[in-house]
Design brief:
Blueprint lengths: L13 E4 L8 H11 L3 E5 L5 H12 L4 E5 L4 H9 L4 E3 L5 H9 L3 E3 L1 E2 L2 H10 L4 E3 L2 H4 L1 H8 L8 E4 L7 H5 L5 E4 L10 H19 L2
Parallel strand pairs: 1-2, 1-9, 2-3, 3-4, 4-5, 6-7, 7-8, 8-9
């Protein structure tokens, strides 16, 4: 049922969610993120010209990062992400058709889930990672209960209202990683500011996970 294709192999389990990013920022913002140690990057489809942004990141960085789309709601959009070189498909919801199309195209599937039923439906459909969203509403102690019934090798990330201040409490209940949105990037933010935020987040994450 679970997929052993682990997106986090040799990469920190931190996903940058760049909602609102423009194509002109594609190279500069992704560059400072990857340099800081965050090399999995999601461009939500409700951003300006998201497919162009993803394509520019892919061409600029090659295999140094894993890029893809968030807020993917339709099978058609999975094709479009694949065409521009994206490798990850992230959704806020559970749509088994989107998951199956993602896996058919050999991409990483990260659907949004909240309940045990959604978790198992997602895994049965081939999801690589479960995105618990919104994590701020679910809370770490409730994730602990869900995690206890999931298959042992399930990869899970917390997304929604996540800051570095909650890393430790979520890691203590065995979350696999985190999706970072407005705490890391907001439209109009200077590249230097994104760089500093990314460096601080990575430093904090490494401190939490060190021995």
């Amino acid at each position: 049922m679970t997929n052993n294709n682990n997106i986090f192999n040799s990469r920190r389990p931190l996903i940058a969610i760049l909602r609102g990013i423009t194509p002109l920022e594609a190279e500069s913002v992704s560059d400072v993120l990857i340099e800081a140690g965050i090399s999995i990057i999601e461009v939500p489809l409700n951003s300006p010209q998201p497919f162009e942004t993803i394509e520019r990141m892919v061409k600029f960085h090659g295999e140094n990062g894993i890029f893809g789309a968030g807020t993917v709601l339709r099978e058609y959009d999975v094709y479009r992400v694949k065409e521009v070189g994206g490798k990850i498909i992230v959704s806020p919801n559970l749509n088994t058709l989107v998951i199956k199309k993602t896996k058919e195209l050999n991409m990483y599937s990260i659907p949004g889930v909240f309940t045990a039923t959604e978790c198992f439906d997602a895994l049965d459909s081939g999801a690589d990672v479960l995105k618990f969203f919104p994590a701020s509403l679910l809370k770490d102690e409730n994730f602990r209960a869900l995690q206890a019934v999931l298959p042992e090798n399930t990869i899970s990330i917390a997304v929604g209202g996540i800051t570095e201040n909650v890393f430790q409490s979520w890691l203590e209940v065995n979350i696999s990683g985190f999706g970072l949105g407005s705490n890391l990037y907001k439209p109009g933010m200077l590249v230097e500011e994104v760089k500093v935020k990314a460096q601080n987040i990575v430093k904090f994450y490494d401190k939490c996970t060190r021995g």
